[in-house]
Amino acid sequence: MDDALPKGPGFNVTAEVAIVKLLDYCRANDWAGYDPYDATNSRFFDALPFLNSRLPRLVLTQLLKRSPINIRPLLLIPPTQNPKAIALFLSALLKPSKTELADRENLIRLMIGRLIALRSPRVSDWCWGYSFPWQTRTILVPAGAPNLVCTTFVADALLDAYEQRRDSHCLSMAVSAAEYILNELYWTDETSIAGFGYPLPSVRNQVHNANLLAAALLCRVYKHTGEEKFLGPAMKVARYSAAKQQADGSWYYGEAPSQRWIDNFHTGYNLCALRSISRCVGTTEFDSCIRRGFEFYRDHFFREDGAARYFHNRTYPLDIHSVAQSIITLLAFRDLDPGSVSMAHSVFQWAMDHMWDDRGFFYYRVLRFCTIRTSYMRWSQAWMLLTISTLLSESRGTVKFPLTQDTAALVRT
Questions:
Q1: Taking a C-beta distance cutoff of 8 angstroms, is the pair 321, 265 a contact?
Q2: Which of 41, 283, 379, 411 could covalently link to 132 via disulfide, CB atoms 3.0 to 4.6 Å apart?
Q3: pLDDT tens for each residue of 229-248
Q4: Residue 34: helix, strand or coil by DSSP?
Q5: What's the angle, vertex CA 143, arms to CA 319 and CA 321, rounded to 5?
Q6: Which residues of 314-329 are buried (b: 16+ CB within 10 A; e: fewer)?
Q7: Following DSSP, what letter does each residue of 315-334 receive, concatenated?
Q8: What are phi and psi of 120, to 5 degrees?
Q9: Confidence of residue 8 (pLDDT cuts 50, 70, 90)
């Protein structure tokens, strides 16, 4: 039975211990690692250019994603620093207070410096892309090419830094990213339809999480700058995607026929983005949409034992990214359901019991008959560092997890 899965090495490991070990693991790997979609970084594509085409890239990507054994070293795929992962690390490091981590300030400066270094080249505005060429079903997004979702997460992390540290350079980079989204990605047909180009500026897919994440960023920039040029397009896009919510409170991933699935973490993105828009603008316009969406989310994405489902209508796969976003979403909407806090803790404990490796990282996926234990830096570790930091700071107010060499050594014993 599903609920009878054996408990793993994380059983009874506290969040405080887990975050120390996870941070130590990420630091030891220089914040770099593999990614579920990095097959296209294989140097075999350079050595054998006749293989470097759409179908081989798709096949290899799916093979490596599904394989329980990580063969990337054999395929000469290097670990890389991904701007989105660095942004998640930055947001995670900004959660605790200054007294809780001995070198916290140095790490924050390091993350901001890495984001500066990893910006997309040959673009006047600040924007970011993934550290690998990304082969979708139809197009190839080049490595480093500006990506709406990646840029949004980086800009949000920079705004986190600005709000806590009043670093004007972080604000100016975030505003520049918003300018890029507004000037290069926003489109409308002059009716009720509006969106942002994704995954490339020329692609007019209606992907709701991308729409809402970008709209939320523009509203957040508007809140800090008062520049109304960001507000109108953001609200038009948000209203379009909010109106595409299904009667049961769910959203399809997108409006194209090939995008008609409903999943955990993209739904969580939608809900958190709508909440952010509402608070930045000071509107109750989306309240009923948020409430129905959260009720669907709470009722369809969780087993009784705390396992977070990837899809709304089947158990497997159980994916660490869904675990991470589940905890963040449940905590964000505790005002709609006080029981969501205890549910968030149950999700965390399930992940520690079944997806935690005592070497200090989280596994990728639990399938029906096996577990994929590959460590992914962006998809898994960065998200879980932000999640545990959020869980600790939200549930206990102040959290102490000093990371010194002596402390890290003690945790490993």
A1: yes
A2: 41
A3: 999 999 999 999 999 999 99
A4: strand
A5: 10
A6: eeebbbbbbbbbbbbb
A7: ---EEHHHHHHHHHHHHHTT
A8: -65, 135
A9: low
**The two structure tokens encoding residue 67:** 């394989």
Are the C-beta atoms of residues 252 and 188 closer than 8 Å to each other? Answer: no
Identity of residue 105: E
Kindly list the distances between the CA atom of residue 182 and the CA atoms of 201, 217, 233, in Å, as whole numbers in the listed order: 11, 11, 8
Q: Which amino acid is at 96?
A: P
Amino acid letter for position 280:
C
- Report the distance separating Cα 34 and Cα 347, nearest Å: 25
d(CA 262, CA 121): 34
- Tokens standing for residue 182: 């507004």
Q: Which of 185, 189, 190 is nearest to 207 (CA)?
A: 185
Cα 282 from Cα 307, distance rounded (Å): 35
Q: From CA 151, how far away is CA 84, in angstroms rounded?
A: 8
**What is the token pair recorded at 412?**
């490993």
Distance CA 276, CA 220 (A): 8
Task: Please state, in angstroms and rounded to a whole number, the distance separating the CA atoms of residues 349 and 4.
Answer: 15
Say whether pLDDT at 196 is over 80.
yes
